[in-house]
Design brief:
The structure is a homodimer of 336-residue chains. Chain A is of the alpha+beta class. Chain A folds into 3 domains: 75 residues, Arc Repressor Mutant, subunit A (Orthogonal Bundle), CATH 1.10.10.10; 156 residues, GAF domain (Beta-Lactamase); 87 residues, Enolase-like, domain 1 (2-Layer Sandwich). Chain A is 41% helix and 18% strand. Chain A is built from 12 helices and 10 strands. In chain A, strands 7-3-10-9-8 form a 5-stranded antiparallel sheet, sandwiched between helices. In chain A, a hairpin with a 2-residue loop joins strand 9 and strand 10. Chains A and B meet through strand 4, strand 5, strand 6 and helix 10 of A and strand 4, strand 5, strand 6 and helix 10 of B. Chain A binds a DNA duplex (30 and 30 nucleotides) through helix 3.
Chain lengths: 336, 336
DNA sequence: TGTTAGCACTCCCTGTATATGAGTGCTAAA
DNA sequence: TTTAGCACTCATATACAGGGAGTGCTAACA
């Protein structure tokens, strides 16, 4: 376990490194009044901290930089997230929600705000269709073999998809199916099992379950949206064109991105460096939180930046914004 | 006017510079057998070409690089675009269209192919809603004041938008409007004037024209899609992080992008360097062409790369692909 | 008159040597 | 246990020389 003084030194090193992006020397730390011992003492302590794995030295006789373990300790035991007051929305530049007209827009607006405030990259996941509830289904034939199926959910999102029409199915029968679905399944979760049983009720003589499942299974329903991509170029660690490139490549892989920012538990998730399994972000940190409505997760909002990230600010902001957005979405839904 | 020999020298310089990205010297040019004179002669000619503005010298005693005027002359009078045979689709790695299920996907697939083939960035514009024809309108109320309007076009695209419901309008009346629109306006162009006259037919006692116009005016209907963003990092001119950054920033400005690649005339458009008004692409070239169906423009496909671009290859490819895609879309629409 | 060989000159690039400075680890004294 | 002092390390900056690619000019040649 670390002594109180070691904690304070670790704290000072990390705070300084977050601000300067340069190795921190003993003299710099000794100048801060929270520590109050001489540079030589700090050198000894820093050597200990390095031995324990909380600090690293880029080369002999350079200052120290925090290791992944150091950041982890800092996040878990040292940092107190900045706390935003309820009334500070305007100060942050939050839009008047009245003018926004969909769940998606509200989430994106928040993402833009976040990236502007932090100068890191913001990633948001729109709602999964599985996590939403059916309001209205429509199937519009394009030809005798193809149709477009459209689903509107209770949150006002529209999913759309092209489907083939099974051989023996007439246009009239399709209308019947749509009618039955709209009458009986409204308000149900869009799970893969939603359509089970509808087929039998029609007594068509052939099985439609598989087709109906496809009607409701919207691919690409997970909308990944990123914002502030170029802002991250301000960070000195991304001056390296190859790192930059790896990151941009990553952005095109929707699946990976989703996996990266998806929180595995409630609350705020901080993943530091190699804790993110993907190699191209092994020196990045990702902080994310879920957006909840009625206890259900409707979206995720996350920030990606260098491990040398302003955790205090970002954790505080994400905490505040995720709750704020949940709140406002809730009110917006009731006001519809 | 340039002499035949000057043309050949300009040609050689540009071809070499396109391949090497480095200033081309007189010795290098004299080695090519198409020219066949000594280095000294070429030095004289190159000095003339520079005086006329076709070549530039980055610094005294360096080789020459083409100027914008040089590229323009090259494109207009020298280069013969590579001609792809009809049967070379497979060679290019063109997908079997059967598995693609929307106009959008077909265009995007082509964009990906283009950027893979050229190592430049590809930008496509999806169809404007104004240029499409109505197949089906639906309005789904979300509450007493809000609804979602959905338009499906003849090309199978779905546009969707949230609208407010005017005060005195009942749900029944909305259904009537939708019915009238679907009966009378099918196959019409989605122009802003589409809905004119519908209002009177209903004899509601108040004017709905403005609202109806909004129903059909889909914002963000111009889908901008980019592909191969990171590929452009292979080009030496984008090693500079600031240029890179300017380009990425540009990508987020949909309006500007549209303006940049929108062709002003039929056929293939080549815009070199400062001919693109936007500063961040003042050392890029953009080659674009429209995708036509039934004589109407349904999309645009363009390539953005350094002015030092392989014009021969790109012009040839865009020419081939834009016609090929138009063709295949046409067949695909008939087969629906 | 047009073409070419020869030559001095320019300017970039690279590698080497040197100086500077921030920071360390160790030792010994307080 | 803390601190001052000192020798040592290593990255970075600066200066400088040599090499090389390429030019412009001149004079000779066909």
């Amino acid at each position: 376990m670390l002594t109180e003084r070691q904690k304070r030194i670790l704290w000072a090193v990390i705070d300084d490194y977050i601000a300067s992006a340069e190795p921190v020397g003993s003299r710099t730390v000794s100048k801060k009044k929270e520590v109050g011992v001489s540079a030589a003492t700090i050198r000894n302590e820093m050597a200990d901290l390095e031995e324990m794995g909380y600090l690293e030295q880029p080369y002999t006789s350079a200052g120290r930089i925090p290791s992944q373990k150091g950041y982890r300790f800092y996040v878990d035991h040292i940092v107190t997230p900045y706390f935003w007051q309820q009334g500070q929305s305007e100060e942050l530049g939050l839009q008047d929600w009245g003018s926004l007209d969909s769940l998606e827009q509200i989430i994106r607006q928040t993402a833009t705000l976040l990236s502007k405030q932090t100068n890191y990259m913001t990633i948001t996941l729109g709602p999964t269709s599985f996590e939403e509830r059916l309001r209205y289904l429509q199937v519009v034939p394009l030809s005798s073999r193809h149709a477009i199926s459209i689903i509107i959910t209770e949150t006002g999102r529209v999913y759309q998809q092209q489907v083939e029409i099974p051989q023996h199915l007439t246009e009239l029968q399709i209308q019947q199916i749509v009618q039955i679905v709209n009458e009986r399944l409204q308000g149900q979760l869009l799970s893969p099992f939603l359509a089970q049983g509808v087929s039998q009720q029609l007594e068509l003589g052939f099985d439609l379950d598989e087709w109906l499942t496809r009607l409701f299974h919207m691919e690409n329903s997970e909308q990944v949206y990123t914002s502030g991509t170029t802002r991250i170029l301000d960070q000195p660690e991304f001056q390296d064109i190859n790192k930059m490139r790896a990151l941009l490549d990553l952005l095109e892989e929707t699946q990976t991105i989703m996996q990266l920012i998806q929180p595995t538990s409630d609350g705020i998730q901080v993943r530091i460096g190699k804790e993110n399994v993907v190699a191209s972000v092994s020196d990045c940190s990702i902080i994310s939180a879920s957006i909840m409505i009625h206890g259900e997760q409707v979206g995720t909002i996350g920030v990606l930046g260098p491990t040398r990230m302003n955790y205090r600010k970002v954790i505080g902001l994400i905490d505040y914004l995720s709750r704020d957005v949940s709140d406002k979405l809730h009110r917006w839904l009731r006001g519809l």
